[in-house]
Amino acid sequence: MSQLFRTQLFDEHVKLGGKIVPFAGWEMPVQYTSVKDEVLAVRNNVGVFDVSHMGEFFIDGKDAEAFADYLVTNDILNAPMRKAIYSPLCREDGTIVDDLIVYKLATGRVMICVNASNIEKDFAWMKSKQAGFECSLTNLSNVFSLIALQGPKSFEKLRPLLTELSDMEYYSVCETFAGGAPVIIARTGYTGEDGFEIFGHHQTIKDLWQKLLMAGVTPCGLAARDVLRLEVCYPLYGHELNDDVNPYDAGLSWTVKAQKAKFIGKEVLQNKPAKYKLVKLQLDKGIPREGYHVLNANNEVIGLITSGTMSVVINKGIALARIQIDKAPKDEVFMVDIRNKLYSAQLIKKPFVTGGHK
């Protein structure tokens, strides 16, 4: 097995008694106390996650925005300055390389945050598409640490620790200072709650982490993060998204702006060739897990669970499932096979939990 990486906060997690597990090539804290306590801290108060394993790329130069716009399916050029834009990164055949967030920091300066497991793959893909654009593309993933402050009291806890922080809009970004050091602040997150993702150099983020804990913020691990994102039905690369599906298969049709003049995969994606449908399923009994079969009323397998867990908030089994469109049951009757026993699953149209983001 190859050597696992450690974030700059690794020693802090160990001091806090965090249970360390391998994740996406990194040693990361899966939990500190209990998953339930950490989930509820984020839903009701405020929690902080170390997500320094994520990757940060910078595009600088005259064509920075144009290059970013060409790379992804969502609309970067027409988004306001200081906006954060979520988007898939697709191949020419429409399949998904990764999902990411593009940040318009300033004219001619764009940052892109990518998934930890895809840093090298994404950077190589973007580099291969750079010809014809006047800009530089730099991988600064090793220079930045990143923490996510999430929960209804996030703004209240973060504001005193920064030189300046306005009550910025959801999915916007700004640059300010923490302890005299520059930081990039985005009002984004992966929990459905209000919150901020804070990018900075390693020592800056270590200092902020300590100050947030001293201010009573609850440290949270990957297990709580996964429950939180699944409760609000956010997709995860490697589960709902992968190299074999396109944005329509993954419920991300809203991110494909076919009216754009050009972007990688446009020719295929503008014809909307979806083979799958992502559905939300809720179980009164049983806990659905990734890979379990989904069946219709005739006991025919129609798809698979892509993510499943027990919801802390509603105390029921919840899942996202990828089903074949041509086998989607019109009567909306779904069953999940859990260890060779069938459990009834209710089709849910909205997220299982309504988050409190702005």
Please provide a written account of the structure:
It is a single chain. The chain is of the alpha+beta class. Among the domains are: 140 residues, Probable tRNA modification gtpase trme, domain 1 (Gyrase A, domain 2); 74 residues, 2-Layer Sandwich (Alpha-Beta Plaits). The protein contains eight helices and 20 strands. The strands form four sheets. Strands 11-12-13-10-4-14 form a six-stranded mixed β-sheet, sandwiched between helices. Strand 19 and strand 20 form a beta hairpin. Helix 2 packs across helix 7. The mean pLDDT is 97.
> Oligomeric state of the chains?
single chain
The radius of gyration computed from the alpha-carbon positions, rounded to a whole number of angstroms, is 20 Å
Indicate the CATH class of the domain at 5-54 and 142-231. Answer: Alpha Beta
Number of separate helices: 8
Biggest β-sheet: strands ordered side by side in the sheet: 11-12-13-10-4-14
Biggest beta sheet summary: 6 strands, mixed
What is the average per-residue confidence, as pLDDT, rounded to a whole number? 97
Query: What best-fitting shape do the alpha-carbon axes yield?
Result: globular
Total strands: the figure is: 20
What is the CATH-assigned architecture of the domain at 5-54 and 142-231? 2-Layer Sandwich
Distance between the termini: 43 Å
Helices and strands: which structural class? alpha+beta
Helix percent band: 10-25%
Summary, kept brief:
By secondary structure, the protein is an alpha+beta fold. It has helices at 10-15, 35-44, 64-71, 119-128, 154-158, 202-214, 222-231, 266-269, and strands at residues 5-6, 19-23, 26-31, 47-50, 55-60, 84-90, 96-106, 109-114, 136-139, 144-150, 173-178, 181-186, 195-201, 218-219, 276-283, 293-295, 301-310, 317-324, 334-338, 341-348.
